[in-house]
Amino acid sequence: MDGALVYEDYLSLVSKKKILSSKLLYSQIQPSSFDLSLSNECYEVRTSFLSTRCKVRNKLKKIYIKKIDISIPKILKKNKTYIVRLNEKLELGDSIKGHCNPKSSTGRLNIFCRTILDYSDEYEKIPINYKGEMFIEITTRSFDIKISEGDKLNQMRLTKKVHNYLNDEKLKKIHKRNPLIFSKNNNFIENGVKVSVDLSNDNKVCAYVAKKNTGILNFSKIKHYKINKFWEPLKPIKKSLIIEKNKFYILKSKEKIRIPSFLAGEMIPYDTGIGDFRVHYAGFFDPGFGDPHGAYAVLEVKTNELPFIIEDGQTIARIKYKKLNKKTTISYGLNINSNYQNQKLALSKHFT
Questions:
Q1: What's the burial of 134, exposed, middle or buried (CB within 10 Å: 0-12/13-18/19+)?
Q2: 202 in the same domain as 314
Q3: Contact 264/32 with Cβ under 8 angstroms?
Q4: Position 343 in a domain
Q5: Which one of 110, 128, 160 terminates a domain?
Q6: Residue 34 sits in a domain of what CATH number?
Q7: What pLDDT score does 162 carry?
């Protein structure tokens, strides 16, 4: 069937050598996505680029500053750009195409990354029946980050033929049977499911903003760092918060959301109708997220243009729901050691 591939499909693609990697771990396969891993081959580059007319490798030869071996951990300096070859290669067929996005932990550290493929005219796009290597562009914007071979910063989501996004009428029918969002409001389904920000208590920490000068953060160290070394906690003032230009914030949704096991969710990163800012760098929810009672969405917020005020209950993001090509037998949650199933206002998994 058409639609987003699920756990069993990725297993099949690995066994048929349609997804190739000398370092593959089965833990990379998620309910409806596949975690991609860094090889040891890294390049510092002068400029970002797409490789629309040649292979990425050929273009890299002309523009890289230096080559770096990350089989030994190396520090990626803030606001410098690097290209790393991914361990995975693709040999797709059968009208399969896809898209990539940063993993939640990557987005919550303000690591901007996007995938570049041979002869592709868009970042993050996996063209239909793609065959070739995969590279990731990385720019860390808040902290100096130590990375090493095998780290997983992004994921791919493959689809057969077409993306089956659900319209509002279908979403309302599903929600009536079993809630997609736990909200006190009634008008939350409009071009997807609307998500608002929680700034409801002036006496309670509602957000974190990344500090300007911090130490180095090792991406592979989990539950290791003290929050106050890297983040400043914020409380609302009269149930509102000023988002300042070029600062990076972590907030949470007012509502709990739920992704049923037969659907996946995507948060729209830019939505000019609700504000000139970016929300949620990662933006993908696997089937089973928040099932059955809902989980808060963590919101990564940044503006590059103007400072703006957000108020409690203000719509800050939308989630689109898409059909899977079949019901997955593996759902997001404790059984596969998912990091953010019952999250509240949660920083990345690197913090205690």
A1: buried
A2: yes
A3: yes
A4: no
A5: 160
A6: 2.70.40.10
A7: 78
Distance CA 319, CA 266 (A): 5
For the stretch 262-291, pLDDT in tens is: 999 998 866 666 666 667 665 789 999 998
Residue pointed to by tokens 């780290």: 151
- Is there a contact between 52 and 120 (Cβ–Cβ < 8 Å)? yes
Output the pLDDT for position 336.
Answer: 47
What is the model's pTM? 0.93
Residue 138 and residue 47 in one domain: yes
- Spatial separation of the C-alpha atoms in residues 33 and 113, rounded to whole Å: 17
Q: Which single residue is written with the structure tokens 């190739």?
A: 20
> Which domain covers residue 323, as residue numbers?
168-336
Q: Which of 108-117, 164-173, 286-295 has the lowest mean pLDDT?
A: 286-295
Residue 72 has pLDDT above 50, yes or no: yes
Residue 304: per-residue pLDDT = 77
Amino acid residing at 60: L
Residue-level pLDDT at 106? 95
Residue 342 lies in a domain: no
Long-range residue pairs from 237-240, CB within 8 A, at least 24 positions apart, any chain: 237/202, 238/202, 239/199, 239/200, 239/202, 239/311, 239/312, 240/199, 240/309, 240/310, 240/311, 240/312
* Whether residue 175 is found in the same domain as residue 255: yes
Please give the structure tokens belonging to residue 220.
Answer: 């592979």
* Residue appearing with tokens 């898209």: 99
Q: What are phi and psi of 277, to 5 degrees?
A: -155, 165
Q: Are 235 and 203 in contact (CB under 8 A)?
A: yes
Cβ atoms within 10 Å of 347's Cβ, excluding its own: 19
Q: Count of domains in the chain?
A: 2
Q: At residue 329, what is the residue type?
A: T
Which pair of structure tokens corresponds to residue 23? 């370092």
Using alpha carbons only, give the angle 166, 168, 174 rounded to the nearest 5 degrees. 70
Within a domain: 309: yes
The token pair that represents 150 in the structure block: 């095998």
Average confidence score pLDDT of the chain? 92
Residues 266 and 244 in one domain: yes
**Half-sphere exposure (Cβ direction) of 183: Cα atoms closer than 13 Å:** 25
Please spell the DSSP secondary structure of 221-244, one letter per residue: --S-B-GGGTEEEE--BTTEEEE-
Distance CA 130, CA 58 (A): 18
Domain membership flag for residue 29:
yes
